[in-house]
Structure formats: structure tokens, C-alpha cells
Amino acid sequence: MPVNLQQEKRAVSTLAALYSLRMLGLFLVLPVMSLYGMQYEGSSPMLIGIAMGMYGATQAVLQMPLGVLSDRIGRKSVIIGGLLMFIAGSVVAALSTSIYGLIIGRALQGSGAISGTLMAMVSDLTSEQNRTKAMATIGACIGLSFGVSMLLGPVFTHFGGLSGLFWITALLGLAGMLLVFFVLPEPPAETLHCPHRDTLPVPALLWRVLCDSQLVRLNSGIFCLHMVLMASFVVVPHLLEKQLGLDRQHHWEVYLPVLGGSFVAMIPLMIIGEKKRLVKQVFVFAVGALVFALLFLGAAYQFNAALLSGLFLFFFAFNLLEAQLPSLISKQSFAGGRGTAMGVYSTSQFLGTFAGGALGGLMLHVGEPRWLFWMLALPAAGWCWLAATMQEPRYLLNVMLPFAGDPEAMRLRLQGMPGVAEVLVVAEEQIAYLKVDDTICDRAALDGACAGYSPHAG
Hints:
mainly alpha; Growth Hormone, Chain: A; Alpha-Beta Plaits; 3 strands
């Protein structure tokens, strides 16, 4: 574990910067690719949509395997390899003159699927009491990267085209490499070959996660959310240009107030949901707002005020749902299953990205934007029903405690303590995974139970 708080802060800030640089590189093309993609040889709306979402396909396939691999060969090795693939993909895309080269470049970018490994590094380099704050910091940086990319993408592309934009993403990857080599601390040696089930996926638990009805609802939701997002970005830039008459380099003038205002508007609901334990009610409201935004855009996008209002409501719902879903996955996962649940969640998210790009390109090719918005409202409405029928979230904390001694005796010892809802004791790891109610659980007693345990104790 980290030796001091200063090292933890350095590790978290470095990992947050790594996340931000990489996600900025992936997001920068979203507001511009459908506009500039037609300049490529052999391009069509369908192929442009596939190019936009292609990184999601390779991310989905490689996300969990690379996370597991990082336990065998080391975190930094996987991160460096992933960044090299990201840089290679950016260079291929920058040099491409055909849409197929662009698709290959995006696929290579996505094959550097290191998000799971970076999250494992967070676990390696932070203490348990600071880990939630570290995850929240990184999540905020990812959200900031998305917002910044919406503002800078149109401006950068105006001066250098898509090729110049991909050279910028390659430079962002190189900056990430420098952070890994010169700033990112080394994980403690004892974490190598010692996977944490609350951080990385465990293949043996995949089927249980896939069959969990509550997790299925959330995984379906993140698939739907990112499918809607990617499909919408195939058509929204065209609407800003044709409907509003806004030059491409000035699209940030819409994204800035819409994204900024929607982010500010969703914060009170986030606070109310957590403090008042109304997370489900806020969540269902947000999904309903997404459905309404899509229906409204489909019906009235041809009016400027309606288009801007619909986009504001869309991003309000998106930001709120994007912030709530990871927390809900953590709440609903079973003891020792959070890493696997998050792995399936991330895979579902990236599959939705690919599906959305393909669907958006197809609909842009065969029909008006209204049909895309109305078609997207159908799965969103289905998600609303899934959200409304899900169980109330369990307000339980995930706790991971090392122990020494007989595993079965330790399980029984912990299971009988106040506030402990679930216990999974893994003998080969010598770790107990718990779900606890922090309002009645005595954390000091839990720590003492494990620290003071011996093979001959209770």
C-alpha cells in the first residue's frame, strides 16, 4: 500500500491526467467527424458512423482481458502497450486518405483498452479510506475531458482538418507516456499477481454477473445511453450547421452553454438523491427526461429554440445518468463482485458506442434526423421501464480486509458482526470482501476482527 498521503495524491493526480489525456484524444473527434468525414475516399454516412464508433468495438473486446493481463505482467507494461496502440491508431488515422484507413485507425485507438488497468492502479496506490475520493476525482476528470473536447474539437479541426486533429491525439498519447515513465509511482511489489476482486474482473464470476437481474438493468442502461449519445453525434453537428446556420468552427458556442448549463442543473439532483436516499427516483426521472428529450427533438428540431432546448435537456439527462450509473453498479454488485461487474459494465458501454455509431450512420443515410431521434426513443423507453422496476439500491459500502487464519471461521466471525450484509472470504487471496451498512457498522471492530484473528481464535 502507499507509504504516505503525498504519494497517494501524486498517484491519483497522475492517473487522472492519464485518463483525461486519453479520453480527450478519443472524444475530440465526436463533434466533427460526421462533418469532415465525407472528404475521405469511399466515405458514406454509414461508414462515417462506423468510424466514429469503431473504437468502442475494440475497447469492448479487450477491456477485461487486458485488465486480467496486468495482474500477470504488471500494470505499467499494459498501460505503456495500450498507449502505444493508441498512438499508432492516431498516426494511422492522421495519414489516412480513405474512410477504411480511418476505421482501422479508430480500431487501433480503441485496442489500447487500459481503463480497467488504470482503475487497478488506483486500487494499488491508494488506501481504502481514500479510494472512493480517488475514483470520484478520476470520474470528474473524464467528464471534464468530454466537455473540453466538445469545445476544442470544432476549433482544432477548422485549422488542421481531421488529420491535424489525429496528430494532436497522438501527441496526447505521447504526453501520457511521459507521465507513465517519469511521474506515475510504481505499484507496491506485493500487488503483482494478487488481483483484487473489487477492482478487476474474475472470469469465474462472469456468469453470475450476467445473470444478476439488477446488474442486467444497469448494463442495458449504459449500453443504451452510449448508443444514444454516439448516434446523436452523427446528426447533431449537421443540425447545428444547416438548421442554425452556424459555421463549423463556432459550434462550441452552442456546446459551451448547453453542456455547462446542463452540468450545473444536474448537481442538485445528484446531491438530493444521495443525501435523501432517493437515488432510484432521481435515476428514473433522468431516464424519463432522456426519453422526452429524444421525442421532443424528433418532433421539433426544425425550430431553433426547440433544438437548443432539446439539446439542453438531452445533456442534462446524459450527465446525470453518466454520474449515477457507476455508483449504482457499485451499490448493486455482490460482495467480491464489483470488479467483474464494472468490467461487464464497461464492455456494455463500449458496445453501445459502436452500435450507436453504426445506427446513426445508417439513419443519416436513409432518413431524416427525426426518424433517428424517434428510433432512439424506443430503447430509451424500454430502459425507463427497466429502471422503474429495479430494486431500491442497497446503500452499502464495499470493504476489503486482509486476514490470516482459517477462512471459514473468519467468514462466520465477520458474518455475525452488526452492519455486515454480505461476506465473501477468498482463501487464496487471504482477503475478505464485505458489503456493510456504514450507519450501524463499527469499522474499527471489523479491522480488529481481521487484524487480531489467528488460526486458534474464534
